[in-house]
Structures are given as C-alpha cells and as structure tokens.
Write a structure and sequence with these properties.
heterodimer; A: alpha/beta; Rossmann fold; 5 helices; 22% helix; 30% strand; globular; B: alpha/beta; TIM Barrel; 8-stranded parallel β-barrel; 10 helices
Chain lengths: 205, 255
C-alpha cells in the first residue's frame, strides 16, 4: 500500500488520484505514527520550502521519515517534496531539509529574457539507470513548475536533468530515496509509468 | 528546452460548459459536460486545462470545489481554476480540491496582497493573473474586471508590472473583443503583454484556425495559447493543433 503524506502542502489529492487511476492501492496519511504501515511513502508538495519544512516539523513527520528512510523504505519526493530531501533550502530564509540526499535548494539563477518560474513541459534527460525509469524512453517531456532547484553535492545522486538555459536537476536519488522535480501526477502517460515503476520498486538500486 | 503549450479553456455556468462571444453570457452556447470534456481533452494530451466559472451569481470556492474534485479525478495534466477567486480561502480550497493553479482576475485590481499571499503559500507558479481587455479609443487597451462589466482605470503596462511584482507566476491575456469570434487572437495585445511580463504569457480570445495559433506564438510571443471555440465548434483537437504547429517549427511535449 502506497502512503501519500498529508503535511498541508497542496496537491496530495492529485497524487493519490494518479496512483488510484493506474490501479495502485493508495491512502493519504496525516498521522506520523502510521507511516510504518505503508510499503511505499510519497512526499508530495506544491509551494514553499520554508513553509514545507515548518509543516513537516510541526506535524511530527521528520523523525518517522528519517527512521523509515534509514530502514530502507522506498520513498518518493515530488516537487517541493523532492526538494525537502536536501540538507538545506533557501526559499523563505535558510531552513533545514530532511537531509536524505546531499545538497542545497537554491533559486534558479536569473538571466536576461529567462522567465522564472520554470513552468511547463520539458524533457527528462536520464543520466543514470534506475528501476523507476524502466520502460521510459530518453527525452520524454514532463510537467515542471518551480522557481528553486536542487543542487546535488554528489554527482552520483543526479539521476536525471532537464535544460532550461542551463542544466536543471530533474531527478535525484540515493539508495531507497528518489525525488522528481517535475509532477508525474500531471504528466499523463509517462508520469503514470514512473509512478507505477515506483510502486513496483523494492528500494534497492 | 521548454515546450510551447496548447490549453483548452473551458467556461462553466450552471453545471455545464458554455461558450460565450465577447463575454455575452446570455447568448452563450452549451458545449457539454465539464467532467466528460476534461477527460476527453486529457486523452487528447492537452498540455494543461483551464476551467473558469463565469456564472454571475454563484461565485467563490463553494460554487466550484465539488466540480474541481470531480474534474481532478480525470485530469492528469495541470488544472487551472478561476472565476470568483477573491480571497485566500477561495484559492486554498480550490487547490486542496485538486486545482494546480488558480486564476485571480478582478481581485487583482483591488488588493495585490491576495496575489502575494497565495504565491507565498503555494508558490508563484500557482497564481495566474487573468487580464481582460477591450480595445478603446484609438485602439488603446482598456482593462475590465467582473467578467468584462467594470472598467478599471489602470494602464495595461502598469497592471502587468504590478501583478508580476506582487508574485503572479503567469499572465492570462484575454481579448474580450475577440472572444468567441474565431477571427484570430489580438496578436498585438499578446505581443505587448509578453514583452512587459517577465513571467510566461498565455494568449486567449479568438482562436478559429491553426494559423491563428501559429501567429499567437510567432508574432504574439506567447508561451501558451488558450483555445475554446476552435475545439468546440470545429473538427479540431489539441493533438491535431500541435501536429500542425510542430510542422511550422514549434516544439511541443513528446509523449
């Protein structure tokens, strides 16, 4: 059973709908002590890093998430949920992420004529093989909406990127933890493929 | 490379989808069921879907939340909801019902803090500011709120700059004169808006042929086109529109 974590940051219903529509069993979880009942955990999110960290802490998710990540439970972060995997985020002042993938989340660097946020469909360039990419072709488009990006400290953790006047991190992963900057739940057939692969994944690379 | 977008824009009133011409709700034509239409546009790989409540009476999140929940169940592409979003509660309730973004239009003239509040909580990308324009004397753009009923005494240039500064993530630039006429977008208006805005501009109002869409992109400089009549009233759909535009050198998502 897939657990989608409700920490008050937006679109968990869309995420749950996307799993459900693809025939996968899914529930929304709002109590931290129930996380261990789920085989796969999803940290969704739309919005603001600083606020997301505050919500994670206030609702008591930080400890249980760290414990289950260390225990090898497959874990997926989406958009801000992916950024939360980092050690530090700078949106809304510096705040401490979950620290599951080494790196920092910083503003996408501006440039003349470059529009921020990065909104829309952009291709996923797969950099490293991973079970969640099974059956996915190179260069397919996914839906991105973000103004901040994940700078990985260890290049081995960069599994996929996209190009927006420079390389932007699209997928990070380390051991049993993976994160997508884009929204698979809003990326139609290819997004559904990734969610299905995540549900089939045992957390071992 | 970021792809261009083709976005069906659907107008909702009294439980149905309708299509207006020049914002005249009384003469609007029925064009189908909202949930079924969204399911079809999703299956035709629409790049996003915009759904606006244009009812004059039932406004705000209460009028829309149940619909958004039903629509979100069949929409696996970004879903933007608007029409009567005037408080933070409206935006928050619609987003928690399944909207990915909200459109703020009339409220953006009164108090820019609503834009900032929603952008700070959900991210700038979750706020689209809708701007409705009629051409006035000597072709000067005149801005209107309240579904085209109230003149707003502010310059287009100044309004765009101030809503972007307040935190708008995109601009939905709509020509009231062209709405439902199927004679082409107001390309000059789109070009003006996309030059002023430092965020992406979505062009709306006037789509009738694929060539109109092409001109909105190439001459209007928009990131996306919103289309209604072309899909409702002609043998066209997002897949075919994008096939045409791809042949003219524009890039769309690869599935």
């Amino acid at each position: 059973m897939i657990g989608v974590i409700d920490y008050g940051m937006g679109n968990l219903r869309s995420v749950a709908n996307a799993f459900y529509e693809n025939g996968l069993e899914v529930e929304v979880i709002s109590e931290p002590d129930r996380l261990e009942d789920y085989s796969h955990l999803v940290l969704p999110g739309v919005g603001h890093f600083g606020k997301a960290v505050k919500n994670i802490d206030e609702r008591g998710f930080r400890g249980p998430l760290a414990a289950l990540a260390a225990a090898g439970r497959p874990m997926l972060g989406l958009c801000v949920g992916m950024q939360l995997l980092a050690e530090v985020g700078t949106e809304g002042g510096e705040s401490r992420g979950l620290g599951l993938v080494a790196g920092r989340v910083t503003a996408i660097p501006p440039a003349p004529g470059k529009r921020i946020p990065h909104v829309g469909w952009n291709e996923l360039n797969i950099q490293r093989d991973h079970p969640v990419f099974n059956g996915l072709k190179q260069g397919r488009d996914f839906y991105f909406v973000h103004s901040y990006q994940f700078d990985v400290a260890d290049p081995d953790n960069l599994l996929g990127s996209t190009d927006y006047e420079g390389q932007v991190t699209a997928v990070v992963g380390r051991a049993n933890v993976i994160g997508f900057q884009f929204h698979p739940e809003k990326s139609q057939v290819n997004g559904a493929k990734l969610l299905e692969n995540f549900a089939d994944w045992d957390g071992v690379c | 490379m970021l792809k261009k977008r083709v976005i069906p824009i659907l107008l909702y009133a009294n439980g149905r989808l309708v299509k207006t011409a020049r914002f005249d709700l009384d003469a609007a034509r029925d064009v189908g069921d909202p949930v079924k239409s969204v399911a079809v546009y999703n299956s035709q790989l629409a790049d996003e879907i915009v759904l606006l409540n244009i009812e004059r009476e039932a406004r705000g999140w209460r009028a829309l939340a149940p619909l958004v929940e039903s629509v979100a169940k069949v929409c696996f592409t970004p879903l933007t909801i608007g029409g009567g979003v005037v408080t933070f509660e409206d935006a928050a309730a619609l987003i928690s019902s399944g909207a990915d973004k909200v459109v703020i239009n009339s409220a953006a003239y009164q108090d820019k803090r609503l834009i900032t509040q929603v952008a700070e909580h959900f991210g700038a990308q979750a706020v689209i500011v809708g701007i409705d324009v009629r051409r006035g004397e000597a072709g000067r753009p005149v801005l209107f709120s309240d579904c085209g009923m109230t003149i707003e005494p502010v310059d287009l240039d100044q309004h765009i700059r101030s809503v972007v500064a307040a935190g708008a993530g995109e601009i939905l630039m709509q020509s009231i004169d062209r709405d439902g006429m199927m004679q082409g977008y107001d390309v000059d208006l789109l070009a003006t808006a996309s030059q002023i805005a430092t965020v992406p501009t979505i062009g709306a109002g006037g789509s009738g042929t694929y060539d109109h869409l092409l001109r909105a992109f190439t001459e209007g400089g928009v990131a996306a086109v919103a289309c209604a009549s072309i899909f409702h009233f002609s043998d066209s759909n997002p897949l075919r529109a994008k096939a045409f535009l791809t042949n003219h050198g524009l890039h769309f998502k690869v599935v």
